[in-house]
Amino acid sequence: MPLSSPTSDLKQIMTRLRAMTEATDGEYQLRRFEVYGVEVLQVSYDQVQGLWWVREHRQFREFEFDDIDLVAIEIYDVLHDMQLVF
């Protein structure tokens, strides 16, 4: 997902995260985020507990959140940092 402006990028990320909260095909949702075709991180959401997990592949880190806004900011930061590598 090549990034353009911070505002539109955050809106796109929030749209994907909200879709995870509204999905009806299972209580666990998983989305992958890429930069230039390279998967950078995975985001999981547990609809029952309301918890998010962000797994960053580059530095092999995992974070747990209970706030969608914090998840969006973390995703944005990781994607932006990855773009700087290229």
From TrEMBL:
SUPFAM superfamilies: YkuJ-like. This is DUF1797 family protein. It comes from Convivina praedatoris. Pfam families: DUF1797. InterPro entries: YkuJ-like (IPR014904), YkuJ-like_sf (IPR038073). Gene3D superfamilies: Protein of unknown function DUF1797.
